[in-house]
Design goal:
alpha/beta; Rossmann fold; Helicase, Ruva Protein, domain 3; five-stranded parallel sheet; 20 helices; 3 domains; 470 residues; elongated; single chain
Length: 470
């Protein structure tokens, strides 16, 4: 059972408390009401856990500003929504500077209250995610893939250090799996905005209509199913960084709206009439040749030059072979520690294979293979992978199928029903074909779906069903 969101309402007006409590209870929230600031602070101090506080400004004895200050001593990130009357603009400014999350002016509509609560909770969630990222420095995103030993990657790092503290737009180019997101995160976390939001959007993962609402948000009633307003990724990234991955897949119509953000720092939500102002650093990445897309008319030239103020190209792993064994050893140590293993390899046998392998999936492929090695504990499995070029050849498949047949025949207890055996074989064949299509298109799912002659949604389902990781 999912726990209800707990909200504390603090107001000296009994009718206001009952009105808000009724609205929130009907909305599915768990509501506690308190009539004064002193009791509210004591309740929080004694361990009364809440997700959000709704706090009136004008109260006798301890007013809203003093109560806000005391609550902030107990919790720096608890969302606090202030309630004010008309004409209290100067007090609201003081409250926001003192750490209030948002405010509402009385009298307010039910929809206004719900929107303010949603925005406050979303902001809290985003801050929690950022805090978690800063604490963990996870292998998958922030640290492991930026291990290097080559001069080419040293030049990439030097360029990152040069531009990180600026607010210029950066276009990161490189094959799939080279670590473009890692470079984007390095640019953000080495800048003065390191404590501000870092928001990632994959432009190839959503259809045009959904991507527009994801980026810019929407107002209530903007389309069927828009029951309440929602902030977009640009709003959530305000004063921080937005990372637009696979920017080359963005629809031309949507590029026009992006240009407005780049030029003016403003946009309108879907169904909205007012412009939303934002201050966001834009970092983009692509595995496509954007210059060619500009020449072909599928990508706007004016946006290209806006995004490409600084260009960072990440070389594929095959062009920096000095990094291969260095990365391998790092990932081996990291995953041995993570999974409590102690896998040791024979460098004389393995390293020549690692260096000869083309690594079409780049650092991501190497990392995944090391993870597989540590989890399975079978070095021969990795050696077969490297010798077979990353996938089974038809001859190998036939040989393995014959071997499996002999093994099954030798133990009647392992014989499967024919329908189940056929299904398993079908899944294996589909997985192999999907992997070929994805690798052949540099993991461009739209193109892979076209090659496989299935819908985009069907491909996403198959990828999940087959357990395929990019």
């Amino acid at each position: 059972m999912i726990d209800k969101i707990k909200i504390l309402v603090v107001d000296d007006d009994d009718s206001i408390r009952r009105y808000i409590a009724k609205l929130l209870t009907q909305g599915g929230y768990d509501v506690t009401t308190i009539s004064n600031g002193k009791d509210a602070v004591n309740a929080l101090r004694t361990g009364n856990e809440v997700s959000l506080v709704i706090l009136d400004i004008l109260m006798p004895e301890m007013d809203g500003l003093e109560t806000l200050s005391e609550i902030r001593k107990l919790s720096k990130d608890l969302p606090i929504l202030m309630l004010s009357a008309l004409g209290q603009t100067n007090i609201i400014v003081k409250a926001m500077k003192a750490g209030a999350t948002d405010y509402l002016v009385k009298p307010f509509e039910e929809e206004e209250l719900e929107l303010a609560i949603t925005k406050s909770l979303e902001k809290k969630k985003l801050l929690t995610e950022i805090s978690s990222l800063k604490k963990q420095l996870r292998i998958d995103e922030l640290r492991g893939e930026f291990i290097y030993n080559s001069q080419k990657m040293q030049r990439v790092k030097d360029l990152i250090d040069q531009v990180a503290e600026t607010d210029v737009s950066v276009l990161i180019e490189g094959e799939s799996g080279t670590g473009k997101e890692l470079v984007a995160r390095a640019l953000h976390y080495r800048s003065s905005m390191r404590d501000k939001p870092f928001v990632k959007v994959n432009c190839a993962a959503l259809p045009h209509e959904l991507l527009e609402s994801e980026l810019f948000g929407y107002e209530r009633g903007a389309f069927t199913g828009a029951y309440k307003a929602k902030a977009g990724k640009f709003e959530l990234a305000n004063n921080g960084t937005i990372f637009l991955d696979e920017i080359g897949e963005m629809d031309l119509g949507l590029q026009s709206k992006l240009l407005q953000v780049l030029q003016e720092g403003s946009f309108s939500r879907l169904g909205g009439k007012l412009d939303v102002k934002v201050n966001v650093r834009v970092i983009t990445a692509t595995n496509r040749d954007i210059r060619k897309a500009v020449e072909q008319g599928t990508f706007r030239e004016d946006i290209y030059y806006r995004l490409n103020v600084v260009n960072i190209r990440i070389p594929p792993l095959s062009e920096r072979t000095e990094d291969i064994t260095y990365l391998f050893e790092y990932f081996l140590d990291a995953y041995n520690e993570k999974y409590g293993k102690n896998i040791v390899v024979d460098k004389v046998d393995l390293y020549p294979l690692l260096l000869r392998f083309p690594w079409p999936g780049n650092v991501r492929e190497l990392k995944n293979q090391v993870k597989r090695l540590v989890i399975l504990g079978d070095i021969n499995d990795m050696i077969r992978y490297l010798k077979d070029g990353g996938s089974f050849t038809p001859e190998r498949q036939i040989k393995d199928t014959r071997q499996e047949t002999l093994e099954v025949a030798s133990d009647p207890a392992e014989i499967l029903p024919l329908k189940l055996a056929a299904k398993e074989a079908s899944v294996k064949a589909e997985r192999d074909m999907i992997l070929r299509a994805l690798r052949g298109t540099n993991w461009n799912k739209k193109k892979a779906a076209q090659m496989l002659q299935i819908s985009y949604k069907a491909l996403l389902y198959k990828i999940k069903e087959c357990g395929i990781e990019k």
